[in-house]
Amino acid sequence: MQISLGLTICLKLYLVAQRSTKIIPMLQFDLRKCPLPDNSLDGVVALNVLEHIDEDEKALAHIFRVLKPGGMAYIEVPAGPTLYDFYDQVLMHHRRYSRKELIQKSKNAGFEVIRAFGIGWVLFPLFFAVKKKNRWLEKRLSEEGKKVLVAKAIQKTGGSSLLRFLLNFESAIGMRFALPFGIRHCAVLKKL
User: Fold this and answer.
1) What pLDDT shows up at residue 21?
2) What's the CA dihedral at 29, 43, 154, 128 to 10 degrees?
3) Could you tell me the sign of the dihedral formed by the alpha carbons of 89, 47, 105, 167, in that order?
4) What is the pLDDT of residue 15?
5) How far is CA 60 from the centre of its chain?
6) The CATH number of the domain where 90 resides is what?
7) Which terminus of the chain has fewer Cβ atoms in its 10 Å neighbourhood, N or C?
8) Which of 137, 126, 154, 147 is nearest to 48 (CA)?
9) What residues in the chain have per-residue pLDDT under 50?
10) CA 118, CA 187: separation in Å to the nearest integer?
11) Which of 102, 114, 92, 151 minimizes the C-alpha distance to 2?
């Protein structure tokens, strides 16, 4: 599965879910105590989920449990454990992941790792610099100041035409290759 194909599939699933809430049931529950029956789903997409769960390995085990044999999971998490900063704290992240950690935790849950790759690698140098700056600012800002800065950063990058251009560029060349690093790690997993 290529990067842009994976992202396209996720986007299409999201758009279908947004338009089809009367057809597709939307459930909310604690993934550490997943109420769904064993072997009940063909696929799971978890974007920006595991980093918010204190017991992420338990959540991965439940994802594995509810998938039918042959079922697939697409997992996306923030990359760079050493880049954890107040931005992550404000967003209520428990951690950032290394690629190796995501792969190992997925295998520990029982998954076959079909592919693990980074996205946002074209942005990584700028991202790295911002994260290092945040580590410096962390000691100088109040808790409220941190929240304000994060809100401004989200608003500023959300509509950025430069960001859109760079991600489109990465997506276009991502059809040819994928790098093992980026601002996010993705894993395509299969339950055998």
Assistant:
1) 55
2) 120
3) negative
4) 58
5) 13
6) 3.40.50
7) C
8) 154
9) 1-10
10) 9
11) 114
Q: Which domain holds residue 34?
A: 3-190
Return the pLDDT at 82: 94
Query: Encoding tokens for residue 58?
Result: 């338990």
* Per-residue model confidence (pLDDT) at position 12: 53
Q: For residue 107, what are its two tokens? A: 């295998």
The amino acid sitting at 82 is: T
- Assess contact for 186 and 76: CB atoms under 8 A: yes
Beta-strand relationship, 41-47 and 67-78: parallel
Cα 61 to Cα 58, 106, 191, distances in angstroms: 5, 8, 11
Please, which residues have CB within 8 angstroms of residue 25's CB and are 6 or more apart in sequence?
Answer: none
The Cα 3–Cα 93 span in angstroms is: 24
Helix axes 161-174, 3-19, angle to 10 degrees: 120
For residue 174, give both structure tokens. Answer: 């991502």
Using one digit for the tens of pLDDT, what is the confidence trace for 10-20? 455 555 555 65
- How high is the pLDDT of residue 111? 98
Distances (CA, A) of 171 to 2, 5, 120, 166: 9, 9, 9, 9
Domains held by the chain: number: 1
